[in-house]
Amino acid sequence: QLQLVESGGGLVQPGGSLRLSCVASDDSLDKYAIVWFRQAPGKEREGVSCINYKGSSRKFADSVKGRFTISRDNAKNTAYLEMNSLKPEDTAIYYCAATAWPITTLQADEYTYWGQGIQVTVSS
Question: Does residue 9 contact residue 118 with C-beta atoms inside 8 Å?
């Protein structure tokens, strides 16, 4: 069964950048769509960005458009979320998730496999 592990989180100052990685194991990632979600204390879970299996289709939440980018390297079994111009409101636990369905969506219930999550804190 597909396993996902996030890394690259931590503390960063406002305006800074951070790159999250999602490494897959036990299966080849090239047949899965990937999504990044985040959840801050007291707030609803938010779909941040997603990418299809080929890397040819992407979606972004309005809150991160122009600042974040999603990518994948199927040869390395890894997906990435590059976050630029970070704001305090970006502070959250970030999760990656995957589905074998040929879709590109920010709807959480479409995804079957989930990572454990990683903390991102944006503060001066």
Answer: yes
Amino acid sitting at position 84: N
Cβ neighbours for 44, distance < 8 A, ≥ 6 positions apart: none
Q: Which of 44, 15, 7 is nearest to 118 (CA)?
A: 7
CA distance 25 to 4: 7
- Tell me which residue of 31, 23, 118 sits closest to 79, measured CA to CA: 23
Who contacts 16 (Cβ-Cβ below 8 Å, separation ≥6)?
86, 122
Task: For residue 90, give the nearest of 22, 15, 8, 34 by alpha carbon.
Answer: 15
Burial class (CB in 10 A: 0-12, 13-18, 19+), 80: buried
Q: How many CB atoms lie within 10 A of CB 46?
A: 16
Q: What is the DSSP letter of 40?
A: -
pLDDT digit string (tens) for 65-105? 999 999 999 999 999 999 999 999 999 999 999 999 888 99
